[in-house]
Amino acid sequence: DQQVKQNSPSLSVQEGRISILNCDYTNSMFDYFLWYKKYPAEGPTFLISISSIKDKNEDGRFTVFLNKSAKHLSLHIVPSQPGDSAVYFCAGLNSGGGADGLTFGKGTHLIIQP
Amino acid sequence: DGGITQSPKYLFRKEGQNVTLSCEQNLNHDAMYWYRQDPGQGLRLIYYSQIVNDFQKGDIAEGYSVSREKKESFPLTVTSAQKNPTAFYLCASSRRGGGGTGELFFGEGSRLTVL
Which of A1, A81, B7, B56 gives the lowest tally of CB atoms within 10 Å of its CB? Predict the structure, then answer.
């Protein structure tokens, strides 16, 4: 049973436009959500996070929105740049639960076209 | 600089052989993790450890073994019992297991190919 779902395996966006990556979750116990960015043959790097008590968190070109009632979050990248081409993983954390770290989605491959 | 070092970056193994992947961190993190990445499968948890001399199975522990004799080190052995070992393996650590924002810091990964 997938607790974190990223239903779009890939997404193509024109340079300069907005990229919107979506993520759905089923575990109501998640109280933090994180986004990671991954280039081929490298480890993922942390991008941005949001607490479940907030509905928005912004860091430069990156904004994450959380809709708890819909169990849905999204990552917005504005404007999209060529270096943003990567795989993006959404992850949820139940900080009061088991100590097994984050639960990841399967990732979305973002392709920024010139 | 602080970080997580995985070695080797690329490794080839013949069927039936065990192989050990190294993971060392100098971030003074208590918790360490091993994930496996396959195309279209995301990151799947193999084993994790919250403290020295203690570790727990993740979602796909069969065919793998770990040890945590030192805080800085968390090696993963891929045994011959692992049916499909060819994958990209990622080691990670965090400040506190199960608490805080849960941010994981990842190593660069090790690509294992079974010939």
Answer: A1
Q: How far is B61 from chain A (nearest CA, A)?
A: 13
pLDDT (tens digit per residue) in A30-60? 989 999 999 988 999 999 999 999 999 999 9
The distance of A54 to chain B (nearest Cα, Å) reads 13
Cβ A108 vs Cβ A47: under 8 Å: no
* Contact status, residue A2 vs residue A92, Cβ threshold 8 Å: no
| Whole-number Å distance between alpha carbons of A92 and A94 | 7
| Contact predicate A73/A11, CB 8 Å | no
- Over residues B21-56, the pLDDT tens digits come to 999 999 999 899 999 999 878 899 999 998 899 999
DSSP state of A42: S
Identify the H or E element spanning B72.
none
Measure Cα distances from A49 to A11, A20, A62, A74, A79 in Å: 21, 15, 10, 11, 19
CB pairs under 8 A between A and B: 80
Query: pLDDT tens for residues B53-67?
Result: 999 999 899 999 999
